[in-house]
Amino acid sequence: MTVAERRTEPAEPLHRRLGLTDDELDAIRDRLAGREPNELELAMFSVMWSEHCSYKSSRPLLRTLPTAGQGVVAGPGENAGVISIGDGLAVAFKIESHNHPSAVEPYQGAATGVGGILRDIFTMGARPIAVLDALRFGDPADARTRHLVDGVVGGVGGYGNCVGVPTVGGELVFDPSYGGNPLVNVMAIGLMEERLLTLAAAPGPGNLIVLFGSTTGRDGIGGASVLASATFTDDETSGRWLAGASPRPSVGRPPARSKRPSVQVGDPFAEKLLIEASLELIERGLVEGLQDLGAGGITCATSETADRAGTGILVDLDAIPRREPDMEPFEVMISESQERMCAAIRPDRSDAVREVCERWGLPVAVIGRVTDDGDIAVVSAGSEIARVPARALTSDAIVHDRVATAPQHRRAAPAPGVPLDPSDRLPERGMDPGAVLLRLLGSPNLASRRAVFERYDSTVGSDTVVGPGRGAAVLRIKGTTKALVATTDGNQAVGSLDPYLGAASSVAEATRNVAITGARPLGVTNCLNYGDPTRPEAFWQLREGVRGLGDACRALGLPVTGGNVSLYNESQAGAIAPTPEIGVVGLLDDVTRLVGPAFVAVDDVVLLVGEATPGLSGSAYAALAGTAVEDGPPALDLAREAALQGWIRDAIGRGLVASAQDVSGGGLAVALAEGAMWGEIGARLRVATTTSPAVELFGESPSRLVVTARPRFAPALALLARQHGLPVEELGIVGGDRLVIELVGAGATGASEERGSRIADALDVPVRDLRHAWDHGLGRALGWEADA
Amino acid sequence: MPVRIGVVVVPGSNCDRDTIHALAAAGAEPVVLWHEQASLDGVAAVILPGGFAYGDYLRAGVIARFSPVMRAVGAFAVGGGLVLGICNGFQVLAEAGLVPGALLRNRGLRFLGRDVTIAAERLDTPFTHALAAAGRPLRMPIAHGEGCFYADDPTLDDLERDGGVLFSYVDADGTRPADDDRATNPNGSLRAIAGVIDQRGTVAGLMPHPERAADAILGSEDGAGIIRSLVDSAARAANGSPVALGAR
Q: Is A37 at the interface with chain B, CB within 8 A?
């Protein structure tokens, strides 16, 4: 025990030790008609009123998001969004964070992140068919980052591979702001028969509450309140917990000094059984409602399902199967032991439910019954030990009106272009653009992710048409001509300059990545990763992010069907860059018409559609160049974005497009290089330069696509673009084994040198060299392979 | 009438549905064989699919070999029945001693999910006779942490001499890799062995997943030839025809 703890602990009242403020305690008394909560009740409130469970800071903001849309069957508030896709089928999808657990114990943190989001999917009645993981870490050269990457990637793979759900995509981003607080956001997608939609409700007083899956232990005590809803201090992530055993917790004495015991432990085998048993129970119509146990454990599952159905639940504490003896009532009620499910069933079906669970080898117990009093009551040894209105724990939980204040100098701040490695800085002038391109392709954020994703099973399920590493993932739907297209995107670089624009750009990029395959985006799920909401500047970033998310979704006509908010992403090193992670699922009606990003055939015409705006801030080039770039982030015109996405889907539908790639990280030159590398064919191109070569080649203005087409289709494609109000530029043709880009026009020559551009006038690189740089960049950055 | 082919499902199987889909697409009638059943319901052949049988926390396949259905599969195999183990199924067959060798952790000690190319060393077996040509590279995924084929040198010599090697990792041109070529032989299997067949010529296992490469839309149909071979052989077995085309 530290000196500080010895001094403060005896004086600290219980509610504060549980993470509740004095105001919140007053509000709890208010919900209990003035009565003082007992210790168990206070523990239940502490998890349910945690930021993680209650969304007490973000709820007023989230209400502003558009949620209605074509085919939406279930939206925010349910475990996952569900959208109808025809043929009696529906897709369920959601993204969620597991940031803090992964910072403390990367393997288990990431593994249980996968487990938790999978449960959200099959709870709805959908079979999980894909996982995408969006990961963010600090400097890849840093030993701690490498430890975290290895653990997180191992955990995602270890869990997903075993349960048999393919990991088909995601992101891996390195930025110094994540050094003390990595982000692990996991998105899962499920496919279901729409008629099997199952909601997380406990209707029908008299019905039984059944708990099945793993037994309940002491793992994950206080995960929601202690771990997920507070800022890290150094001690808690340094691994110093190894030095001594954690003290046995009691109410108000959660293992706070070391947060390690708060991390849950995953068992993917149990999850696999849980998937099969749950889907069988749903298929056979044996459950009235189903809820997984995640943050807040039994307290959360019972109060949320009761509140949604307008009922109450009487919990028989002694009936809950335990994995260790002498557990305190509060431990049982808030344990976050993994791989557990809670169902409301009719009494006459209990034998059938038991048979299904036992056949899958899962412990099962009736742990309570649905009541009509609206309360969560807990009984043990014949006496009632807690009684709290269900809605007080959930829909009537406290909401905080946080203060938002914009930082004073946000525009004047230097670009977030601090290079990860100072030796990566570009020289001052005269650099060969080909060399810049190779540096970008080999940089940690743009290089091939293969070294990471080949540790995942990306093909189990035999639906993976396009797996990780080539833009959006594509999954065929067996028995139909259709496919689902999915991606995650988050733009923290723009977000740190302008959080509104960062969020809107993330939505634009994610939907664009789906649209360029020919698919129609169906809906948006989001994971909002921000700092401490009690800091006005951090709350302003969140507020701006939600505003950008809402505006972009409205402009593109897409519903937000669910998501997750992760706050307190701060460490001693400061807050993370505001990171709205956007997950999008789209529907492709005919998978045989899928268009990819790779160049296809010799003589195909290369077109650039959309318009560049000057600006390099927030770009990968800026990161490489250091702090020299101080212009603003590229502007985003949402109407133009909608037009672009409408055009590309139209063009693909008419069969005019051979390949399509969006211009994003690394700019036009990287988009062209990807087309060439992945198509294993070169191109000879001319780019008209009106600003500077660096902006033309490496600027990341949004709403632009590189599209190739057979020569005979190119005129029709260009005409169609103009009809959609989009500027078109013909860059050249596909062919050869080199990528050649000539810069022509006013900004191309010495004039640009005068204005400080660092690059010369032409780029000419063998495709083989592009591929080599791209293939090996990540392995080298992480020290997984030697420099060659 | 379509031939009935059993797919063994133990808790933790996760390629059973894919295998069932591929079998149905190849014209067979897949029959689920639950791990607790002691009879094979009269199927004409059995596939042990991929997954993490019983969680595989100890060692891949080591628990599954003791399941009731595996006793039945063992008896079926000894009696000349057709059995194919894919990935985890291969590991279970090796643990049960129904095929030679063992599957160790990948040389790099990490799970690997990627496309590989393999070549059938024999076309005269119930599992390969429908393939177009010997030695032609077949592209399909691997996804395993314990796929490094191991046996002692005399056993390896015997396997190579007597036609016990059914599939080898090869490069895209069909060339056998050098010993340390992890691009071609990613798990470091000895003699680049990707799949083996027993002496009777009726029990085989391989680490790559043919059922995931049985449809053009997935990028490769090369695995379909293996599935088709088995379905065809099983149909013959059901009709009482000899199936061990080339016992060694």
A: no
